[in-house]
């Protein structure tokens, strides 16, 4: 998958794509539907996704609480798995935010990227002040010579599939409900960093990952699937993970600590993708380390049973 960050510098072979447009946070079933429509709309054209980095919400409210379901690398990996040929990951800055809806259509879609067809959700808004609607984009397409398809919103049972609904499910400790809307397990991806090695001392060495910039699921212990994406231990594993602030040790900064079953090795600096499968329990502060160790053993036993049934 090729990545293009500046719409003013696009190679001829990357023009003419049929592209889905949106933020694609989580790359949920609704997003996947939009991408599939873009694929079918022009099967002989490169399949593209047009999105923005940073997320416009981060640009306009940089001090707001973290909300993203996935970072840019995790989004890229998911889009590549879906067969996207070219990712137009455009820099969202003051200049981009000041474009009117018509200027965005003309300068970015037509003159810059040369898209042949675009697909957007029915609730799509664009341009300065989010003044443009999906219907406006369709009108610009007719006037400027590119195709437009407006995709209906997707529903899972009685719930509209959306990043907001997925964040709510995760906040409430319902990772399987989130996965039903995502079409895949919710994954936290990042580099293994150094910790205080308490897990090693307790007999459960963990791979620690920071959670900065991401929406925080319910704090507690999860049954997890783990992909080590690089390094000598690259592969697939099962495990149990603790997400939160470690109240037993008076922690303050949330992180993710993952214990990989039947694993021995050094993962520092490796990139992990940790899938939250089931929420086992909330965070607790135990009366003793022995009680904590016993509970960790029980958590791992329960995780093995859950993951073995997948």
CATH class of the largest domain: Alpha Beta
The poorly predicted ranges are none
Number of strands: 16
For the record, the count of structural domains works out to 2
Kindly state the mean pLDDT as a whole number?
A: 92
CATH fold title of the largest domain: Rossmann fold
Q: Which structural class should the secondary elements be placed in?
A: alpha/beta
One letter per element, helices H and strands E, the order comes to EEHEHHEHHEEEHEEEHHEHEEEEEH
State the helicity in percent bands.
25-40%
- End-to-end gap: 30 Å
What is the spatial order of strands in the main beta sheet?
A: 1-4-3-2-5-8
Instruction: Tell me what the CATH architecture of the largest domain is.
Output: 3-Layer(aba) Sandwich
Can you count the helices?
10
Q: Name the CATH superfamily assignment of the largest domain.
A: HUPs
**Global Rg:** 22 Å
**Major sheet attributes:** 6 strands, parallel
Shape: elongated
Beta percentage is 25-35%
Pathway: Cofactor biosynthesis; FAD biosynthesis; FAD from FMN: step 1/1; Cofactor biosynthesis; FMN biosynthesis; FMN from riboflavin (ATP route): step 1/1
Pfam family, one: Flavokinase
Organism: Seohaeicola zhoushanensis
Protein name: Riboflavin biosynthesis protein
């Amino acid at each position: 998958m090729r990545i293009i960050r500046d719409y003013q510098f696009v190679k001829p072979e990357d023009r003419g794509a049929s592209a889905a447009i949106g933020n694609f946070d989580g790359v949920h079933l609704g997003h996947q539907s939009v991408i599939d429509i873009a694929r079918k709309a022009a099967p002989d054209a490169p399949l593209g996704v047009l999105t923005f980095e940073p997320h416009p919400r981060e640009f306009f409210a940089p001090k707001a609480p973290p909300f993203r379901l996935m970072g840019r690398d995790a989004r890229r990996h998911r889009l590549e798995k879906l067969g996207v040929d070219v990712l137009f990951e455009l820099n969202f800055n003051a200049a981009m935010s000041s474009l009117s809806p018509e200027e965005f259509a003309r300068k970015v879609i037509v003159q810059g990227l040369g898209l042949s067809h675009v697909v957007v959700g029915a609730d799509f808004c664009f341009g300065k002040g989010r003044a443009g609607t999906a219907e406006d984009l369709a009108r610009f397409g007719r006037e400027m010579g590119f195709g437009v398809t407006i995709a209906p919103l997707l529903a899972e049972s009685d719930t509209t599939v959306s990043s907001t609904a997925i964040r709510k499910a995760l906040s409430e400790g319902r990772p399987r409900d989130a996965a039903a809307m995502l079409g895949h397990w919710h994954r936290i991806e990042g580099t293994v960093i150094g910790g205080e090695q308490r897990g090693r001392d307790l007999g459960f060495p963990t791979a620690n990952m920071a959670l900065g910039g991401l929406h925080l699921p319910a704090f507690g212990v999860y049954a997890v699937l783990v992909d080590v994406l690089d390094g000598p231990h690259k592969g697939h594993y099962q495990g149990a993970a603790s997400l939160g602030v470690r109240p037993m040790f008076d922690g303050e900064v949330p992180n993710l600590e993952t214990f990989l079953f039947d694993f021995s090795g050094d993962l520092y600096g490796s990139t992990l993708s940790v899938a939250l499968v089931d929420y086992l329990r909330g965070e607790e502060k135990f009366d003793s380390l022995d009680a904590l160790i016993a509970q960790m053993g029980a958590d791992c036993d329960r995780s093995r049973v859950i993951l073995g049934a997948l």
